[in-house]
Design brief:
Blueprint: E1 7-11, H1 16-29, E2 32-39, H2 47-55, E3 63-67, H3 69-82, H4 99-113, E4 117-119, H5 128-139, E5 144-146, H6 148-151, H7 157-166, E6 182-185, E7 190-193, E8 223-230, E9 233-237, E10 240-241, H8 244-257, E11 262-268, E12 274-280, H9 282-298, H10 301-320, H11 326-338, E13 344-351, E14 354-361, H12 369-372, H13 385-408
Parallel strand pairs: 1-2, 1-4, 2-3, 4-5
Antiparallel strand pairs: 6-7, 7-12, 8-9, 8-13, 9-10, 11-12, 13-14
Length: 409
């Protein structure tokens, strides 16, 4: 098994787990290892990952570190937000949406360096193994995939540390003890799960939260902001044009300061078990409300309701790892078509964990004040027309009622 792999591209963070995986690949497969580290806005310095890889014997030309923040937001986060995607009605899919981008970059590097395999550090119980591997196979059908957590016998923290010490892998002092919970982070969100969070009956400790202050600690005065949209994507804050990643960073700062974006969720994993996670998506929570606000005046009722109908399916595809599937791309085409006139500005009130839309305007607004006013308007709307409309819609209800009356005698 091990002899058929000559070169592997590893998704590498520079942390203990992926450093152990790197060495394990070298010792178990006897292959050349290429590392890929993505800057997704996780808030960590990435140069230590380069130094760690070099320390473990990786050639400089085989170490790839790339800032993908702009691509992440413009090509993955924003298309998802055009759909107002929420998994199980609540989760903004912060971890899920990052996996296809990492996978794509790994495959691109594999082609560039002539690697015949890719590897990830996802465990055998989670969703990420599915997301990575479905993406790999969609992009490179014959690629060899190595998932160490499904193969090795390093099944405990103690054995992992022993392996690290045996192979002289540096271990930070804070990594020697059992971590109180695990964290995944990127520009869209942070996700915390495991250990102290495993009992869903217990409230998450305050120290779990890293991206937001508590709503109770937020200012007593509301913050007002305006977000500008063009064809469904946010392009400005308070009139200032910003790049996608810069805009999301700014919204994260505003959300954090106002205690916005916390979610404590028990979700249904794709692999079949329930999992409790604590998510923080401050900027995304603001963005979702703003986007729905601008859609409320620019989307026709039929289009808006159709979007809401397909949203759970679209969100499920992302959560399950089918970003590169034809059905996700088909739904994306429909969603993107709906955004043709989703342009304008939304004013929001941020206050102690809450986001309220307090104003919206668009050059393509379908809102007609003359139609809805209680005063006499200039638009021709004959109130008497409603009688026929109601009778036609009541016809089947009246037919059913008459039949039921006959049956009951």
């Amino acid at each position: 098994m091990a002899n058929d792999v000559k070169k592997v591209v590893l998704a590498y963070s520079g942390g203990l787990d992926t450093s152990v995986i790197l060495k394990w690949l070298q010792t178990t497969y006897g292959c050349e290892v290429v590392t890929f580290t993505a800057d997704l806005g996780q808030g960590e310095e990435l140069e230590p990952a380069r130094k760690k890889a070099e320390l473990l014997g990786i050639k400089p030309e085989n170490i790839f570190i790339e800032d993908v923040r702009e691509e992440f937001v413009s090509e993955y986060v924003f298309p998802m937000f055009r759909a107002n995607a929420l998994y199980e009605g609540l989760y903004l899919l912060g971890t899920s949406i990052a996996r296809p981008l990492i996978s794509k970059k790994q495959i691109e590097i594999a082609r560039k360096v002539g690697a015949d395999a890719v590897a990830h550090g996802a465990t055998g119980k989670g969703n990420d193994q599915v997301r990575f591997e479905l993406s790999y196979y969609a992009l490179e059908p014959e690629i060899k995939v190595i998932a160490p957590w499904r193969e090795w016998d390093l099944t405990s923290r103690t054995r992992l540390l022993e392996f690290a010490e045996t192979h002289q892998i540096p271990i930070a002092k804070d990594k020697r003890g059992e971590a109180p919970f695990s964290v995944d982070a990127n520009l869209l969100h942070s996700s915390s799960e495991g250990k102290v969070l495993e009992d869903p009956a217990e409230e998450a400790p305050e120290y779990v939260y890293q991206r937001t202050i508590s709503p109770e600690a937020a200012p007593d005065k509301a913050t007002y902001i305006s977000i500008g949209f063009e064809k469904g994507d946010a392009v400005s804050i308070d009139g200032e044009k910003l790049s996608p990643a810069t805009l999301l960073t700014r919204l994260n700062e505003l959300g954090k300061a106002n205690g916005i974006g916390r979610l404590d969720l028990v979700e249904n994993r794709f692999v079949g078990m329930k999992s409790r996670g604590v998510y923080e998506t401050p900027g995304g929570t603001i963005l979702l409300q703003a986007h729905r606000g601008i859609e409320s005046i620019t989307l026709d009722r039929g289009a808006a309701h159709l979007k809401d109908d397909i949203m759970p399916r679209y969100a499920e595809l992302i959560y399950y790892g089918f970003w590169f599937s034809p059905e996700r791309e088909m739904l994306q085409a429909l969603i993107d078509k709906s955004q043709e006139f989703v342009t304008g500005e939304v004013r929001l009130k941020l206050y102690k964990g809450n986001v309220e839309v307090v104003g919206r305007s668009s050059p393509y607004s379908l809102y007609n004040q003359d139609l809805v006013t209680f005063e006499e308007g200039a638009v021709a709307y004959d109130h008497r027309d409603a009688a026929g409309f109601i009778k036609l819609n009541a016809l089947r209800l009246r037919t059913l009622a008459n039949r039921d009356r006959k049956v009951r005698g």
